[in-house]
Design brief:
Residues 679-706 form a coiled coil. The chain has 28 helices and 26 strands. By secondary structure, it is of the alpha/beta class. Among the domains are: 1-136 and 143-156, Roll (PH-domain like); 177-319, Leucine-rich repeat, LRR (right-handed beta-alpha superhelix) (Alpha-Beta Horseshoe). Helix 8 packs parallel to helix 10, helix 13 (333-341) packs parallel to helix 15 and helix 20 packs parallel to helix 21 (564-574).
């Protein structure tokens, strides 16, 4: 009988077909006409809108009125009646459970379209109380984005089909806060509802245009770029800019283009169409914080035009990030970048935080010296994939850089020595440096390590060092370990796939000893690989136990280190209460069984961790040991997927390492340290506040015990509460800290 009723409801409207929407409520109500006459109707609350219908002969039905959630502007409840309005429609119904129905509609509307973005008036005139939380639980859709598309389709009067909607219902929407559009999607029948749904998507941070005509996409997706305040970044990947300038001028008013970071990837940025587009877009953007040119076609003339546009347009005068990657054949690029660093607005506002000129495979020595000679607020310089063929000199003292990325660079001994000498002498202040995959003559590389090991006073400003994928012989490994021992101020260390355990077992022992001497170490990355030469296995366990006992490590990456069950037991210590670890990567741990790995994942979910990687390869290693025809394999796969869903819900989509997440994780690795420091500072402050509150609570409890006057006792209870944790105590704790002896001395 229930199936017949469901089939009857689905037959009411094409927009209620199975697979295109989900029915949340249906029942009989009384429809109130404009003349206040009432007639019995069927009322359906679906994930895409509300529908009022009537029965016809032979079990048929028809919808008399429908309204999408996008169109709703007001909901009013009075007595047993409810009035739901749009700009053009009004639905008035009466029912005994009208409060439940109206609140359900409001919660669905609120979930799909935030009232702060698309306002709605909600008037609850009934006296008494109602359990709104219970009603809210009636709509807990995992696919709010797909439901919003359905609502927008109903707004446009576009019929939905299960085949088209299945894409949005079977896949989690915007897992990496990205949406990519191409020519195929631009011809999609639901492109208009899709664009409107994205306009109100708060998780949309990055919009990618891939191999499409920019003018066409801008016409379709205009509202996204003009209205979505959460969109931070727009990427043009191999796009055609023909007529894009004219389209921008016709669509956008003054300063209505919202994305603050523009990325041009694999584009012909030397074409007149692009130059015209770039110059016109500046007139319609309020501010641009980031500009990225990755593997683009640029000539000296076109790059100079872009640089001049940046220099003389106010929308770029809050620029925080400038990236030019894989650009070759422009010998005077250092002069062009220098003109930005030397501009009056950059020197005054000190807004430029990051400059990247990478993978140009040219001598970048002069550019580096030019950049650091100006105080423009830099916290990161990325010059990876270039050459340093001459010694460097630094004029301004000191030059604060922050993080310096020199990975995959080619050095002469003189050039890299001059950099470390400048750090040692205080001419440049570098808090972090990436020297992964550096290219040097082997003899010069050994001499560099000898130089680093000989600096017994260490490099005081250096707190983070990445030294991944550098092949070190036994002597080199021991020299690097000596360098670590003299730099006890290091707080973050990454040395993945650099110490070969077979060729340099003594080097690994020296390295292990050095790690244990780093009293300030908080982040440690020692990733292995499929090559057992960089897999330390059981040898790593004593180090893990020692670090856990010291309770200092906040970030730990031991991916592919095959530590086994004993190593997993050591990791469990990091998950105990009181441990500071908040970020863990452990795929490839080589557990003995599926259950052992599953139990550890459950423990991670229930722990205090902020982030933990999902061990996909490790789970599949266990599953692949079972024949495909074995029923146990299917059981384990289902169990893995259920656990994975819970894991992703707990730690976010970035816990799954793939081609989407790895670039994000790589960039976040540089920022990770500062973010963690902020988190830890907040947590420590919270703990201190709680201690202060506890201290004052005990004092007031003692005071309360000694009070003889019942009136005073009653007054104290009224002001402070039985638990003695009211705001008065916060004020007292704040006063105590402000006028403490330590504070007065400071």
């Amino acid at each position: 009988m229930e199936n017949e009723l469901e089939n009857f409801i689905w037959s009411m409207s094409p927009n209620l077909k199975r697979g295109t929407a989900h029915v949340l409520y249906y029942g009989n109500v009384h429809w109130i006409s404009s003349t206040n006459c009432t007639q019995e109707r069927i009322f359906v609350v679906s994930t895409n809108g509300i529908f009022l219908g009537r029965r016809k002969a032979l079990g048929m039905s028809e919808v008399t009125t429908q309204m999408s959630y996008f169109d709703m502007i007001s909901i009013s409840i009075g007595g047993t009646s409810c009035n739901i309005s749009s700009q053009t429609e009004q639905i008035r119904i009466r029912a005994d459970n009208i409060e439940q129905i109206a609140l359900l509609i409001y919660f669905v509307r609120q979930a799909q379209f935030s009232p702060s973005l698309l306002p709605i008036s909600f008037n609850f005139q009934n006296s008494g109380s109602y359990n709104m939380k219970t009603t809210a639980k009636s709509y807990k859709s995992r696919h709010v984005f797909a439901d919003r598309i359905g609502s927008c389709a109903l707004h446009y009067g576009i019929e939905l089909f299960p085949e088209e909607m299945s894409v949005f219902y079977t896949n989690d929407s915007l897992p990496y806060h990205n949406f990519e559009i191409n020519n195929a999607i631009s011809n999609f029948m639901l492109i208009k509802p899709l664009a409107l749904a994205l306009t109100f998507e708060q998780d949309l941070h990055k919009f990618i245009l891939y191999k499409c005509n920019v003018a066409k996409i801008f016409q379709i997706c205009y509202s996204i770029f003009a209205c979505n305040q959460f969109l931070e970044r727009i990427i043009f990947n191999d796009c055609d800019f023909t007529n894009a300038a004219q389209t921008v001028n016709s669509l956008f008013d003054k300063a209505t283009f919202l994305p603050v970071t523009w990325c041009f990837k694999n584009c012909d940025c030397s074409s007149p169409a692009f130059i015209s587009f770039f110059e016109n877009l500046t007139d319609h953007s309020k501010r641009v914080k980031g500009l990225e040119f990755v593997n683009t076609t640029l000539t000296s003339q076109s790059l100079m035009t872009i640089i001049q546009t940046i220099l003389f347009n106010n929308c770029f005068h809050n620029l925080e990030c400038l990236e030019i990657s894989k650009l070759t054949g422009i010998p005077d690029i250092h002069l062009m970048i220098n003109s930005i660093a030397n501009s009056s607005w950059a020197l005054t506002s000190k807004c430029i935080k990051r400059i990247e000129v990478s993978k140009s495979n040219t001598d970048i020595s002069q550019l580096f010296m030019n950049i650091v000679s100006f105080d423009i607020g830099l916290t990161e310089i990325c010059l990876s994939g270039n050459k340093f063929m001459q010694p460097l000199g630094f004029e301004r003292i000191p030059s604060k850089i922050g993080f310096l990325d020199l990975s995959d660079c080619t050095f002469t001994l003189d050039s890299i020595t001059s950099i470390f000498n400048a750090i040692s002498n205080g001419k440049i202040c570098v808090s972090g440096i990436d020297l992964s995959r550096i290219h040097m003559d082997p003899n010069d590389f050994s001499k560099l390590l000898e130089l680093l090991a000989a600096e017994r006073n260490g490099y005081k400003s250096l707190e983070r060092i990445f030294f991944d994928n550098n092949v070190m012989n036994p002597k080199d490994s021991q020299l690097f370990a000596t360098f670590l021992r003299f730099n006890t101020q290091l707080r973050s260390l990454s040395i993945s796939q650099s110490i070969n355990i077979y060729e340099s077992s003594q080097g690994f022992r020296a390295f292990s000893f050095a790690i244990c001497q780093l009293k300030n170490l908080e982040s440690l990355y020692i990733r292995g690989c499929s090559d057992f030469s960089y897999c330390y296995g059981q040898l790593l366990i004593p180090v893990l136990r020692y670090l856990a006992s010291k309770k200092r490590i906040k970030v730990l990456d031991i991916t592919d280190q095959r530590i086994g069950d004993v190593g997993i037991d050591a990791l469990m210590i990091f998950l105990q209460k009181g441990q500071p670890l908040i970020h863990l990567k452990f795929d490839g741990c080589h557990s003995s069984s599926f259950d052992k790995l599953s139990n550890f994942c459950h423990l991670a979910i229930s722990s205090h961790l902020i982030f933990a990687s999902w061990p996909e390869e490790e789970f599949m290693r266990h599953i692949n040991q079972i024949p495909k025809y074995d029923t146990d394999r299917g059981t384990l796969v289902a169990e893995k997927e259920m656990l994975k869903s819970t894991y992703v819900e707990r730690f976010g989509y970035l816990c799954i390492e793939n081609q989407n997440s790895l670039p994000i994780l790589k960039k976040e690795k540089i920022k990770e340290f500062e973010d963690i420091q902020q988190i830890v500072t907040v947590n420590e402050k919270k703990e201190n506040d709680e201690k202060d509150m506890k201290k004052y609570s005990e004092k007031f409890k003692e005071l309360n015990l000694n009070v003889r006057d019942n009136q005073i006792s009653t007054l104290m209870t009224e002001c402070l509460g039985q638990s003695f944790n009211d705001p008065v105590l916060s004020l007292l704790a704040s006063i105590d800290r402000t006028f403490s002896l330590d504070n007065i001395q400071d």
